[in-house]
Each structure stands twice: as structure tokens, then as C-alpha cells.
């Protein structure tokens, strides 16, 4: 397994449910990439939201130019410079981030938005709650350390 130290959060910069995960995979493949560049996605699925798998985590992603080594990329469908992240999408994202950070021992401060890397982008959107996400992950980490570990369904 390759060393992983950072989780990079993205948005698709498109209207939620305007495109399918398969569309995103096809766009990335059309760029000459080896499949979708993200390792995970949070996508609109009918009336709700769900997590989908992308590129295997064993493979280096294609989601943050110059920062793909040592990172996992997760993208949330939608444009969060234009609208706020829906509550259910946030819940699914938080659950996924909690699982990934625990599995790879990534500290909450290493959960970053694409825009926080030296690259000219708004991603994952100017309205995206990055500080809230890191704070919730820190809280979950503290609870786990006290033996009050959260089951995935409770995240």
C-alpha cells in the first residue's frame, strides 16, 4: 500500500444530479487518465445521497495536480461556490471522511480542500464547510479516544 497522509476534498463544480458518476468517469478517461481521478464520490442518488467508489486507493489519484502522491481524493457532486452543501450530503461525506481518516491514520488537520493546495481553484467551493468538517472529525476522534467510538451508521 502506498503511503497516504492527506485527504483532499473536492466538488464537481456542476449542479447536483446534472451529471452521473459515470459521466465524471468518462470525462476523466477522455482526458487520457486511467479512469476517474477521485478515489471516492458523494453523489445525488434519486431523492438522497450516496457514496460511490472511484479509483482504487492503492493507485495514485488524478485530482490535485502536483499533490496526488500521498493523497486520497473525494469529490462531492455539486457546486459549493453557488449553494450550500445539503445536510444529507454532509452527513454521508462526514461518514466517509471518518472511515478514511481512521483507516489511513490521517489527522483532521490533513483533511484539506483542493483550494488549500497551491493551485488556482475555488474547489471545493467558497461555501463549503471545511472548518466544520475538520472540527467534526476532531470531535469524533476525541470520542473514539474515550472509548465512545462511533459506528459507521452513527457518523
Describe this structure in words.
The chain starts with 5 loop residues before the first strand and ends in a 10-residue tail after the last helix. The mean pLDDT is 92. Strands 3-2-4-1-5 form a 5-stranded mixed beta sheet, with helices on one face. It is globular. Helix 2 crosses helix 3. 28% of the residues lie in helices and 17% in strands. By secondary structure, the chain is α/β, with parallel strands linked by helices.
Mean pLDDT: 92
Report the sheet with the most strands, covering strand number, pairing sense and barrel closure: 5 strands, mixed
Radius of gyration: 15 Å
Q: What is the tally of beta strands?
A: 5
Distance between the termini: 26 Å
Tally of structural domains: 1
The low-confidence runs, each spanning 5 or more residues with pLDDT under 50, are: none
Using the 3D structure, state the CATH architecture: 3-Layer(aba) Sandwich
Helix content: 25-40%
Class by helix and strand content? alpha/beta
CATH homologous superfamily placement: Peptidoglycan recognition protein-like
Determine the CATH topology: Lysozyme-like
Under CATH at level 1, the class stands as Alpha Beta
Amino acid at each position: 500500500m502506498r503511503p497516504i497522509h492527506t485527504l483532499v476534498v473536492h466538488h464537481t463544480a456542476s449542479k447536483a444530479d446534472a451529471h452521473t458518476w459515470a459521466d465524471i468517469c468518462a470525462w476523466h478517461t477522455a482526458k487520457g487518465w486511467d479512469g476517474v481521478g477521485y478515489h471516492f464520490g458523494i453523489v445525488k442518488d434519486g431523492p438522497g445521497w450516496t457514496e460511490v467508489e472511484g479509483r482504487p486507493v492503492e493507485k495514485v489519484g488524478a485530482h490535485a495536480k502536483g499533490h496526488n502522491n500521498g493523497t486520497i481524493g473525494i469529490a462531492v457532486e455539486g457546486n459549493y461556490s453557488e449553494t450550500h452543501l445539503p445536510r444529507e450530503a454532509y452527513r454521508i461525506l462526514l461518514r466517509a471522511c471518518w472511515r478514511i481518516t481512521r483507516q489511513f491514520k490521517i489527522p483532521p488537520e490533513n483533511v484539506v480542500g483542493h483550494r488549500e493546495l497551491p493551485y488556482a481553484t475555488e474547489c471545493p467551493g467558497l461555501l463549503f464547510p471545511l472548518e466544520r468538517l475538520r472540527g467534526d472529525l476532531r470531535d469524533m476522534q476525541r470520542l473514539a479516544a474515550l472509548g465512545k467510538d462511533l459506528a459507521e451508521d452513527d457518523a
